[in-house]
Design brief:
two-stranded antiparallel ribbon, 277 residues, alpha+beta, 43% helix, single chain, 7 strands, Nonspecific Lipid-transfer Protein, Chain A, globular, Four Helix Bundle (Hemerythrin (Met), subunit A)
Length: 277
């Protein structure tokens, strides 16, 4: 079952999640530590989303670089004497420009991304999930949690497993080994199938990657007929999405099946994620 939302829905979520993110941080001590990123304060989180994420993707959509370079992209420099109100105003300005740019860019238009999807549709989806998770960071910082949208969270399960943990560069080849894990969001009736296996390939610098443990998300048509998963992981979409993003523990998440296979899956999905935004 596909979890993808419409382009308009992704923009709506970027708009609403950005507003919630901003509202939470506006009432938070700027020096408060972010529990999910201990090296950051609330002010750091605010600057990251505005200047390091949404400003960057505005640049990508507006200028259409073949690939961003430090020479071409002028990243904003955080003013040392800026007040918290200044940072909030800066967020408002950059966020409004980012949303307007998205609205003016068709999802099918070719744009750079760090994934194999070289269209604006990637940015629509990725940035909806980026701001959702950083909204959760803000709420954890302020101890003011509110529910995650179930449909967006269900899509988030697929995105983190397929794009982050299961994404492969063009030079890599994945060989599944017939061990299957199914992640079930019980409130949205969505299921994500994952096969464990090994990845090999030669990096552009010549280094060889040989039979490294990895995983791959299976589309419906690629699930072998009459196959039963070795492991089933169940929870609400919001709980599973936050858990996979290391924003909550596994309380309320149910696991049934082969424990060794689950442990292999968890070893692959409990690593720190490189934040490509």
């Amino acid at each position: 079952m596909t979890t993808r939302l419409t382009p308009a829905a992704y923009i709506d979520h970027i708009r609403s999640e950005s507003a919630r993110f901003r509202a939470v941080l506006a009432d938070t001590d700027p020096t408060a530590p972010v529990p999910t990123a201990p090296e950051w304060t609330a002010a750091d989180l605010l600057w990251h989303v505005a200047a390091e994420v949404q400003h960057f993707w505005t640049y990508v959509l507006e200028t259409r670089p073949t690939a961003p370079t430090e020479e071409a992209y002028d990243e904003p420099e955080r003013p040392k004497d800026a007040s918290y109100q200044d940072l909030l105003a800066h967020f408002d300005e950059l966020n409004a420009r980012f949303i307007k740019t998205l609205e003016q860019t068709g999802p099918e238009e070719p744009t750079w991304s760090w994934s194999q999807d070289q269209s604006a549709a990637f940015t629509y989806r990725r940035q909806a999930h980026e701001i959702l998770i950083h909204r959760l960071d803000a709420e954890l910082t302020a101890d003011a949690l509110t529910p995650l949208d179930p449909a967006l969270a269900a899509d988030g399960i697929d995105e983190i497993l397929d794009v982050f943990y299961g994404g492969k560069p063009e030079w890599a080849t994945f060989a599944g080994d017939g061990r299957y894990v199914r992640v079930d969001a019980v409130d949205t009736d969505t299921r994500t199938w994952v096969e464990l296996g090994l990845v090999s390939g030669t990096r552009p610098d010549g280094d060889r990657l040989e039979d490294e443990p990895d995983l791959s998300v299976l589309s419906t048509e690629n699930i072998p007929a009459d196959t039963e998963p070795d492991v089933v992981i169940e929870g609400t979409a919001a709980d599973l999405d936050a858990w996979l993003w290391r924003r909550r523990d596994d309380e309320g998440i149910r696991v049934a099946g082969d424990r060794d296979i689950y442990d292999s899956f968890r070893a692959l999905t409990n690593q720190a994620i490189k934040d490509d935004d």
